[in-house]
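job 3f2a | input accepted
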Amino acid sequence: MSVATDPQPPARTEPPASPDGGRRRVVAMTVWGIAFVAGWLGIGLPTDPAYAFVWIWAATIAWNSSRPWRSHLRFARDWVPVVLLLAVYNLSRGFADNGATPHAYELIVADRVMFGWLTGGEVPTVWLQEHLYRPEVHWWDVAVSWVYFSHFVVALAAAAVLWLRDRGRWAAFMRRWGFLCATGLVTYFLYPAAPPWWAAQNGLLEEVARISTRGWKAFGMHGAGNLLNAGQIASNPVAAMPSLHTAFALFVVLFFLRQTRRRWWPLLLAYPLAMTFTLVYSGEHYVIDVLVGWAYVGMAFLVVGLAERWWAARKARRAPAEPDGEAEPTDPPAGAEPPSIPAAR
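job 3f2a | predicted structure (345 res):
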């Protein structure tokens, strides 16, 4: 049985050693960092997919500034479809409610059933804000704002690193991530659900403040969340089930977990747990939203993994069959005269 192989060796993904000892990279990344901070303070943190892509692309150019421009243009070529899909995803979420009344009561009941014994019958969001939320900003509010912001850049940054180091794993990452986004979007249309802050505004819960961006005010960075706040105002308030914020956090961690030493696992797994606390405390999601988001991550790995194995098996079955379609020349039997060729006239 023959095995089809790629005759070309894999291209090197690591840049050649810099003759200047890396000074050019340090200078380029310093310039990028200064520009990023200036844009962050003047415009806001990059929470829009297109804006985040610009900064990530600029970071890859600064990191590998010695590479030819065609390498940087290949990055844009591969990523533009991804950014467009994310932009369409963000826009389409806004139409998920279709004017219908969103689901809220059953989510409240689910959280009370699961955690009411611990919170005195309250949903976890109300209980956490009763114990932690104060008019003045505390250190945990700062941590919450940064963890919440990380949702918009961590997956993209991880994918950018994969693109630079291993295009095959980048493609596998994107297939699973795209499936996760698509299934989440379909659910938003089929089951529009409102977050706790919406339920409080409509009299279904006690007062709940939406406080995911207030932490930056502690440092006087009032413009840091400008884009995020504008996006929250324009976004669909009934796209809460499942929570893709926590799904993205768990997805990135699980994708890299097997290649990470076990001693670092607790630190990595703390990230989706921190995101869960952030979303519940800030009034953005119920715990049931988080649990369903985690289930969607498992479904993404399972379904896409099965599809990849099916496709690989299909290619393996077809590979040895392809040469059979051609009649290969055979040697004539011993003693037989070779076939005569008519003379040209």
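job 3f2a | Residues 287-321 form the longest helix (35 residues).
job 3f2a | closed
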